[in-house]
Design a protein that fits this description.
Number of helices of chain A: 7
Oligomer: homodimer
Largest sheet of chain A: 5 strands, parallel
Helix content of chain A: 40-55%
Order of helices and strands of chain A: EHEHHEHEHEEEHEH
Largest interface: A-B, 56 and 56 residues
Radius of gyration of chain A: 18 Å
Distance between the termini of chain A: 9 Å
Structural class of chain A: alpha/beta
Number of strands of chain A: 8
Chain lengths: 194, 194
């Protein structure tokens, strides 16, 4: 490969207090494995003088990064609930829609259903065997880390979600799974270029 | 338009106890407005004799429906947390990635930040003015219904999310917002064909 492949760095990392520092850590790791990282906050300096509303400006900047990227790594660590951050999940769908390679990790090793069971009242339907939550909505029981659309999008590309049981205080900062994704991506791209 | 446009019907509706009946209600409304509805469970009969794992079979069936659809309507009602169902959000990203028209409704009229504030400990950072949750992660404060990637994807297409304050017992069955999306879609498509 003659040019440095670009990786879009998706995740709730942007909500951290030191979000910019996290981007720098991830971009340094990308460089170590022969990639260039594109981080959603890279445009930060431009944001305050934009002539469009700030949320639209951020959306357009992320879309621009995603279209420029050759692949993406998603931090799917559950965020304020049993599932991954909604913005990150949107971007995963967007990349799959574009037909680009996706890799992902989560810092929570549990199955989705175990988190849902712990978060509130659940019951098993005697007739069908389905698990249901307090609203009567069925709970997926496939042994996946998240909703099946998420897990299967990655499985279908032969890059299943890498699950890593991070320490609670490092839930949103542990980069073990991120680095495993980088190694996997480097291997996939080098085998494609030979 | 010479053929009937196909609408993919995305949402946590598939988790309802009477999920198939909900699909029939939505498809009948689609037909009333001149559309054909494609519902994720339409393949139900095939599911049990598939030679692949069931979650992968469902994923592939949904992808097939999404690729066949001309547009989609998303039920973004918050699901087990402050944000929409993760599978639905994945599909929204997928459609936007494909460049197809998307419409959406939610049966919760509140802003994302108000749901997050009510769900747990939050505090305002005196220095930056940012709201942060108990994990120290910032909370978006743009007056949006959900993560900005979701709201802005729809805003960018000039079909902002339709918010409807459904009664609590009809949170996942009220179709007022869905029908408003159908009317909007019918108007958009008829103006494009003239």
């Amino acid at each position: 490969m003659t040019r440095v492949p670009k990786i879009y760095l998706a995740g709730p990392d942007v909500f951290l207090e030191d979000a910019v520092a996290m981007g720098q850590r991830k971009k340094a790791l990308c460089a170590h494995y022969g990639f260039e990282g594109l981080y959603p906050l890279d445009d930060n300096g431009e944001r305050n003088r934009a002539d469009v509303r700030q949320d639209l400006f951020i959306y357009r900047a992320c879309v621009t990064h995603m279209r420029a990227a050759d692949l993406a790594i998603f931090n799917l660590t559950p965020f304020r609930g049993a599932s991954a951050d909604a913005g990150t999940v949107f971007e995963l769908g967007y990349f799959v829609g574009l037909g680009k390679p996706v890799f992902a990790y989560t810092n929570d090793a549990e199955d989705l259903i175990d988190r849902v069971k712990r978060s509130g009242e659940t019951a098993r339907d005697a007739a069908t065997g389905d698990w249901r939550d307090a609203m009567g909505m069925s709970i997926e029981d496939f042994g996946n880390a998240d909703n099946l659309m998420i897990d299967m999008a990655l499985y279908e590309q032969h890059h299943p979600i890498i699950r890593h049981a991070a320490r609670p205080e490092e839930r949103f900062t542990d980069l073990t799974g991120f680095e495993a994704c980088l190694r996997h991506a480097a291997k996939v791209l080098s085998s494609e270029s030979t």
